[in-house]
Design a protein that fits this description.
Layout lengths: L1 E6 L8 H14 L6 E7 L1 H12 L7 E5 L12 E8 H11 L3 H16 L7 H15 L9
Helix pairs in contact: 1-4, 3-4, 4-5
């Protein structure tokens, strides 16, 4: 498995090596041993642009996933899952509001994004419950805050 991490924001200091370890461990734990994906850490401004362009929502969000296993070109590179994009600024605000560390918030967002790349969703209550359970299971080794 391969996870490329690119930090394109400079406002918030982030441990990209730790996030790479979280992502790689999540992929292995999920059974996606041969998978490849990317993690892009961006500013609110960049996230707003992406959210507007791809979802038609003109505001920032915490995490977006861009799966490559969907659409007519999916069979060209079956191990390529896609990319997860996280707004570091939004993650920081959410962490503060929830009383948890930024590190814990980033772990939760990264695992959430990877689960979307793996085909999980939260459109129905049962899907949401399953996804939340997996987020907790995969995040447990990395979460610092009790109850995080």
């Amino acid at each position: 498995m391969a996870l490329q991490v690119i930090n394109r924001q400079r406002k918030i200091r982030l441990d990209t090596r730790f996030l790479k370890k979280v992502g790689q461990t999540t992929l292995v734990t999920a059974g996606a041993h041969e998978a490849e994906c990317g993690l892009l850490l961006v500013s609110d401004r960049a996230m707003t642009r992406l959210n507007r362009q791809y979802r038609g929502i003109a505001k920032s969000t915490d995490v977006l996933s861009f799966p490559m296993r969907e659409g007519p070109l999916a069979s060209l590179s079956p191990n390529l899952l896609g990319d997860v994009v996280i707004s570091a600024e939004m993650a920081d605000r959410q962490a503060t509001a929830a009383g948890r560390s930024l590190r814990d918030e980033l772990v939760a967002l990264l695992i959430h994004g990877i689960l979307h790349l793996l085909g999980y969703d939260h459109q129905t209550p049962s899907e949401a419950k399953r996804m939340k359970r997996l987020e907790r299971q995969f995040g447990l080794p990395f979460i610092e805050t009790e109850g995080g």
